[in-house]
Amino acid sequence: MSYISIREAARSDFAKMISFQKNIYRGNPNYRDYQTRMLKMLFEQKMEIQKKSRTLPVLAEKNGNIVGIAMLASIDRMRDCLQIAFLEMNNEEAVFDAILAYAKKRAQALSCSTVLVGLNLHVNYGLGLLASDFDKAQSLGSAYNPAYYIDIIEPRATRIRLLKSYKDKVSAIRLDNLPSAIQRRLDLFEIRHADFKKIEETARIYSYINNLAFESHKYYYESRDAENLELFNDYKIFLKPENLLFAFYKDEPVGFILWYPDFNQLIAAGEELGVRAFVKSRLYPRSIDALKLTEFGVVPRFQRTAAIYALLKECYELNKSRYEWIESGWILAENSDSDNLVRRFLKQESKSYKVFEFDV
User: Fold this and answer.
1) Which of the chain's termini has less CB crowding within 10 Å, N or C?
2) In this model, does residue 1 exceed pLDDT 70?
């Protein structure tokens, strides 16, 4: 039996690690490449989130060949947890066992109580490994991985968290039958489109709502303005003001919805989202038949008011004649309020995702 070794990656390894990641998905018609660009930024220590946190690229080798890669991350706002982020590996149990053992030793040195698989630094960059429907195309912003990742990781996990996404035809959505008490209060909230000409202010408002709305979310930690500004700049060629909707109550920002056309429909298998997809989206907008309801949130004081319905109504009015399908982002199954809200309008379960925790 050949020994699998784990070591910290050197700069000279980075190109080989990217090549390994691409080879995992080569020939898979359902995969779209979100990771290469982000991995390159992480390797170069260029991301805002790295300024006060620790990230360590590692690789697993067998007989001199790379058989697994990961980014170990200890985030300054999540100190009790060490992430095995951006994990890619061959279909061999020993590879994951070796990476996990290495991560646990590092976690002990950092006084972390948990090793986490499925969170990519922050929920804004991805939460959950795909756990179903591996034969379906990857939609914008959703995770994709081989089925064997789940087969190998799940039996070893101490705790497993389930996430779900939902979809339905846009024509099936009904916002005209809301309870009268909600209908009467929709006008209390002003819905504004984001102003990306004032992108710093937009990032600040987005951070403010996120940090209040998701404060009790299982895997959420404080989102910083500079990190969200970086996120918006990454997608700026695709962002239109209408893609980020804010709800205001008497000039106080109280909620938001972030949505996109499913640009993945414009890119080929294994391709990255970039300028080519942007050009296609402008030339052939009707070639996209689905929108992605990526994220929504309302500050606690307004979570049981008409604020979220005012946001949903605006999103629906913008898109009811543009797209045939709408798909939600992931929702923690234990988050009953959000789960019930989305299932009220989107009746079909789409895909499931899982996050894995390991006691150190």
Assistant:
1) N
2) no
